[in-house]
Amino acid sequence: MPDLFQLNNNTNRQADKFSGLITVDNFIYIYHLPGDIQGEGTWIYLPQWPDQITDKISSSYSQTNAIARSAPVFSYSNSGPRSVDIAVELHRDMMDEANANLSNMVPEVGDDYVDTVIKKLQAVALPNYKHETKEIDPPMVAVRFGNELFIKGVVNGGVSVEYSKPLLVGNKYSLVRIAFSVYEIDPQDAIGISKTGSFRNITKAFRDRLGG
């Protein structure tokens, strides 16, 4: 398990600074991308809440038509996977304030945190190849929004990025909208979901990281 506790000193300061508008309880953690500063994974803090999040899970049944029955016989086949559709709007000034001295990302020269987030999220569509050991780290992420939703899984279907005016100094769009879907990888059961709902499978490491 990667070291998730190295950069936790500024959590309360960041939350208080923006009077509740920005909260580090919203994050994306990318398991297979090494942090630019330290740690084995990359932390992305999100200052805004999405207007809407779609959390869905399906179940499948096979059906057989039986003689003298007005309804078919349904046999349970499988459930899932659970998927969460996320679309967030990122303002450049707010992203810089939320991640500076807290995230383990370091923007390249000429980039800001929005540019860096776009690059990191586009990378979740690909695995990380370790040429020395011939190992492959599969692309896996964890996403949390407050105490409402948590999911660990893979980004399935790619990442879309939309840029919106006005333009800022340096000819960069002030607003960027990023959308992606995460598919859960951990198996579930009815009793567990009935108790935890959409905020399930969050580990102590992530709770301690954010004080949740």
Q: Helix fraction?
A: 10-25%
* Alpha plus pi helix count: 5
Largest β sheet strand count, sense and barrel closure = 7 strands, antiparallel
Total domain count: 1
Compute the average pLDDT: 81
Distance between the termini: 19 Å
Q: How are strands sequenced across the largest beta sheet?
A: 2-1-9-10-11-6-3
What Rg is obtained from the alpha carbons, in whole angstroms? 20 Å
The poorly predicted ranges are 1-23
Describe the structure.
The protein is of the alpha+beta class and 212 residues long. It has five helices and eleven strands; from the N terminus they run αββββββααβββββαα. The chain has one domain. It has helices at residues 11-17, 92-99, 113-122, 190-196, 204-210, and strands at 26-30, 42-45, 54-56, 59-64, 73-79, 83-91, 128-130, 135-137, 141-145, 149-168, 172-184. The chain has a seven-stranded antiparallel beta sheet, covered by helices on one side. A hairpin with an 8-residue loop joins strand 4 (59-64) and strand 5. Residues 1-23 have low confidence and may be disordered.
What is the element layout, followed by pairings?
Layout: H1 11-17, E1 26-30, E2 42-45, E3 54-56, E4 59-64, E5 73-79, E6 83-91, H2 92-99, H3 113-122, E7 128-130, E8 135-137, E9 141-145, E10 149-168, E11 172-184, H4 190-196, H5 204-210
Antiparallel strand pairs: 1-2, 1-9, 3-6, 4-5, 6-11, 7-8, 9-10, 10-11
